[in-house]
Each structure stands twice: as structure tokens, then as C-alpha cells.
Write a structure and sequence with these properties.
about 20% helix; alpha+beta; Aldehyde Oxidoreductase, domain 3; elongated; single chain
């Protein structure tokens, strides 16, 4: 499970949930930097550590001993929640988990050292584990 070792601020302020802001294409992390094949997000979503781990397990099966996998996202945004049946007031809820806010165009995973057919099949399968629409892109 991915989560920060230490954080400067335990609870963040809640941002506006504007569709316009979220659906704007990402400007960072949009091109393949390390591998040959990559899984790229096409819709916005919040990616939890569990979802990243589920996708990583699927892709790791493809890499075997020859391939290499890069995870290009890290969940560092804290999400808080109040317990069930607790009234309004009395402050912000406790830390529940961490997420990474994905915007369209972001490269999530990169893969190298495996045949194209195997890489594409496993990246598509990993994309089904994630809460957004994805596409497989290649360097060439």
C-alpha cells in the first residue's frame, strides 16, 4: 500500500469539485519518460492506493523476470471522513486514506522489456481495475 511516510499537513482543505477544472487536460506527466508502453488516463478520477496496487499486480504478471515497470503516480492527497451516524459540527473528520487526483492525459504506468502484444493485453487489463477510462500508448 502506498502512502506518505511523513506529511507537513495531516488534513488538507477541500477543493471545489468543478467539472471544468477537473476535466482540463494535465500538463505534467503526459508523455512516456521511461518505458516503451504506457497506460494513460482519458477521464478525471481519484485514484486510491488500493486501486494502484490492484493494477500493479496485473502488470507485474506481464513483466516476469525480463520486464520493468514504472508507477508514475503516488497517492499523497489525504481524504477525511466522519464516522457513520455522527451529527454535524465538532470539526473535520479523521484521516481515511490517501488519493492521487488524475486529470486526462496523465501517464499512470509504464512498461518495458516485454513483447508488444503481452504489454498491451496486460495494460488493458490493468485499466479495468481503475475508476477512469484509459488508453494504451507506445513510444513508437
Amino acid at each position: 500500500m502506498l502512502f506518505p511516510k511523513k506529511v507537513k499537513h495531516r488534513k488538507w482543505q477541500t477543493q471545489r469539485k468543478s467539472e471544468k477544472r477537473l476535466s482540463r487536460p494535465d500538463t505534467r506527466g503526459t508523455s512516456i519518460a521511461f518505458g516503451t508502453y504506457a497506460l494513460k488516463a482519458t477521464t478525471p478520477a481519484r485514484l486510491t492506493a488500493n486501486q494502484i496496487e490492484a493494477a500493479r499486480k496485473v502488470i507485474t504478471r506481464a513483466t516476469a523476470k525480463t520486464g520493468k515497470l514504472w508507477i508514475r503516480v503516488f497517492p499523497d492527497r489525504p481524504i477525511t471522513a466522519k464516522p457513520a451516524e455522527v451529527g454535524m459540527g465538532s470539526g473535520k473528520g479523521d484521516l481515511k486514506h490517501f488519493v492521487f487526483e488524475v486529470r486526462p492525459g496523465r501517464v499512470l504506468f509504464e512498461l518495458d522489456g516485454v513483447p508488444e502484444a503481452v504489454a498491451k493485453a496486460h495494460l488493458i487489463q490493468a485499466g479495468t481495475k481503475l475508476p477512469m477510462k484509459t488508453t494504451v500508448v507506445s513510444r513508437h
